[in-house]
Amino acid sequence: MQDTEYTARLATRDDAALIVEFNLAMARETESLELSPATLASGVRALYDNPQFGFYVMAEARGPGDGAVECAGSLMITYEWSDWRDGLFWWVQSVYVRAEHRRRGVYTVLYEFVKRLAAADPRVRGFRLYVERENVAAQHTYERLGMSETHYKMYEAPLERDAAEKS
After folding, report:
1. 59 within 8 A of 112, measured Cβ to Cβ
2. What b/e string do you get for 44-71 counting C-beta neighbours within 10 Å, with b at 16 or more?
3. Neighbouring-strand partners of residue 124
4. pLDDT of 66 strictly over 80
5. Beta-bridge partner residues of 87
6. Closest Cα partner for 97 from 30, 166, 52, 13?
7. What SS3 string covers 51-114?
8. What is the pTM of this model?
9. Using one digit for the tens of pLDDT, what is the confidence trace for 144-161?
10. pLDDT band at 68 (very low <50, low <70, confident <90, very high)
């Protein structure tokens, strides 16, 4: 893994099954949740069908020697309109890096790729994300990349019809 080169690219519909796999693993690891694979697959496809909501980015690892490429991680960007700023905030969500690629700069490659895309879009005002309180390693990574904790707390109220999936 030492000589592995990481790059990022926009994900394609062909990446959907892997994104589902990554999100299932992330939910297990971070929240001990078993998500519905069918619901998750439908949700991933829906983003591809509705690009006005956001997009996915994949990190690829190219090993030394044969140059074999494998997907090392991914993230999702969704859009939030800010009337205060007359522009968009990009929410960084569904961040997942395969265990064997962690602590090797994969998230940095993903984030720098997203920053370049945002810099080219005059509507984008900044980035936001939420992180589990106990995920101190991720918090340090975000801070090292220039993000800072805000004074906001996040609240959620699922609709009654969706509450069963949250529990």
Report:
1. no
2. beebbeeeeebbbbbbbbeeeeeeeeeb
3. 88
4. no
5. 82
6. 30
7. HHHEEEEEEEEECCCCCCEEEEEEEEEEEEEECCCCEEEEEEEEEEECHHHCCCCHHHHHHHHH
8. 0.89
9. 999 999 988 888 898 987
10. confident
pLDDT recorded at residue 163: 61
Dist CA 45 CA 71 (whole Å): 19
pLDDT, averaged across the chain: 92
Q: Which residue shows structure tokens 């991933």?
A: 44
Q: Is 46 left (phi over 0), alpha (psi -120 to 50) or beta?
A: alpha
Calculate helix-pair angle for 16-31, 37-49, nearest 10 degrees: 130
* Per-residue pLDDT at 166: 54
Q: Which of 129, 156, 143 is nearest to 75 (CA)?
A: 129
Q: Cα 68 from chain centroid? A: 24
| Phi, psi torsion values for 97, nearest 5 degrees | -130, 130
